[in-house]
Amino acid sequence: GALPSRSEWRAVCSSLSAWTTTMIATARCPSTALATAARRRSAVGRRVACPGAARTGPTKGLHGIGGGPVAGHRHHHRLASLVVAAQALRGGWALMRTPLVVGVHRRPPQPRVGAIRGETTKAGATPSASSSTPPSGAAAAASSDARQIGEFTTSELKRLLTERGVDFRDCLEKSELVQRLQKSLRDGASAVGDSQEASKIAQLSSGEQRTVKLFQEVAPSVAFITTSVVRQTSPLSMRGVEIPSGSGSGFVWDREGHVVTNFHVINQAQKASVTGLGAGDEASMASYDAVLVGAEPEKDIAVLKVAAPGSVLRPVKVGSSSELLVGQDVYAIGNPFGLDHTLTSGIVSAVGREVQGIGGRPIKGCVQTDAAINPGNSGGPLLDGDGRLIGVNTAILSPSGTSAGIGFAIPVDTVRRIVNQIIRFGRVLRPSIGVSVADDQVVRGLAARVGKPLDGVLVMDAPPGTPGADAGLVGCMRRRDGALILGDLITHVNDKKVKTVEDLLNFIEELEVGVELTLTVFKGAVPNKEEKLTVKTVERGQLAR
């Protein structure tokens, strides 16, 4: 508040002698002091006119430091300055410029806008159709005028299902996603999740309460996996002894008892046991023997199965990794160094990273995070801020072997595709077009010999009866005089540029078996002979038969 002028001070000094003692005595409670001054209608209020002042009742929305409402005067900052002046005159203190009362203006509650169509803002009321808030993806899908559901892309279907809280982890093909969304719309499933429980730790901030709630919800879904091998006690003895060989993390995938982890956690192990499942009952304290359902070494994914009661099988919520943004919060739960159920947090540092897998093939599209990931975290879940699975922790980049702030996780979109295939078929169905291609080094050598660039993947052989041969792909051949005739050069897959063999394999393996794709090729590796061929993928095992 502004301090009085010199003339006002003279009027104040001549009028304060009768009530200075009372004001100072009550100054310990500023709201009481102000209320007392207002009730007395003191000479200060009459002789020192405040421009625009109005003697009214308690001012709504304003509270003093002590918690009581400020009464009697709208210019409470100016009156508080007079109280401070009285203290200064009485005790000889230096003039303090900070008012004793801080006004806090309370904003009226804002109406909550529904996230999807049909959510009410007040009891029995729905948002107006003329609202400027655009409808969300779930509302657009529910509209009868919207696009046909089958016209949505796979990513859009996943996002719609996620917004509506529908589990689609077991969906392997796009048609299954469409059916799941149609069923959700028929059943009237809502995108609104379960109402949040009241916080039991009131002194924590809202961000801390959210983190605590996330851990409490997801931790019972995270498993502690220990592996062992059997060794003979001596070369002459037939007795075997079980020796621990390692440990890691995993998480419950479904209520059938499937547990997902990294392949390198159980690699070369003869026995695996799972503990730490569930919470709140005796079954959560038990250890369960696990059997291997299947694995994909090239993607470092393995699926185990335990015969555990349903009370401890709490599947983790599955999100999507296709729309991750650098900077968003992530959380890792695992068992570093055998310390079970450890939570670390960080952010998404980068997306689309390439990590060398245990099978020798790179794992593309990995999520990089600075959340602390240490030995023992392998196979544990990487979660977003809502506790949904966005990746499986798999590797760290560190010269010391401990966390250096650079960890990697296999994206959940890749995990979901592989895990569903393992659960359904016991193995990963690898799509193929049935042709053999030249190594990148060979192509570079041929380009130097023919004196022209060969930017693409060169087809070496297209056996008859394979999808590639049926589509018209031709491999390399030699004439009788030994001259080499180059085969077709694949430059694009579904209009996406391919430069290396790895590019071609990654594009094809991301597709489902039985899906048609369009190849752009240079016939005979001649650039001016470009053609587009349609090829239908088949399962690699069918080609061997």
Structural features, described:
This protein has 545 residues and is an alpha+beta fold. Helices cover 26% and strands 24% of the residues. The protein is built from 15 helices and 22 strands. The protein has helices at 6-15, 20-25, 30-40, 43-47, 76-91, 137-142, 154-163, 174-187, 206-218, 263-266, 412-425, 440-450, 467-471, 501-509, 540-544, and strands spanning 222-232, 240-252, 258-261, 271-275, 288-296, 301-306, 329-334, 342-356, 362-369, 381-383, 389-396, 407-411, 431-432, 436-437, 457-461, 477-478, 484-485, 489-493, 496-497, 516-522, 530-536, 538-539. Strand 2 and strand 3 (258-261) form a beta hairpin. Helix 7 (154-163) runs parallel beside helix 8. Residues 17-80, 88-146 and 189-199 have low confidence and may be disordered.
Describe the structure in brief.
With 545 residues, the chain is α+β, with helices and mostly antiparallel strands. 26% of the residues lie in helices and 24% in strands.
> Rg from C-alpha positions?
35 Å
Mean pLDDT: 74
Indicate the multimeric state.
single chain
Report the biggest beta sheet as strand number plus sense, adding barrel if it closes.
Answer: 6 strands, antiparallel, barrel
Spatially, the strands of the biggest sheet line up as 1-2-3-6-5-4
How many β-strands, per DSSP? 22
Shape: globular
- Continuous helix count: 15
Sequence stretches where pLDDT stays below 50 over 5 or more residues: 17-80, 88-146, 189-199
Quote the beta fraction. Answer: 15-25%
Helix content bin: 25-40%
Helix/strand/pairing class, anyone?
alpha+beta
Distance between the termini: 90 Å
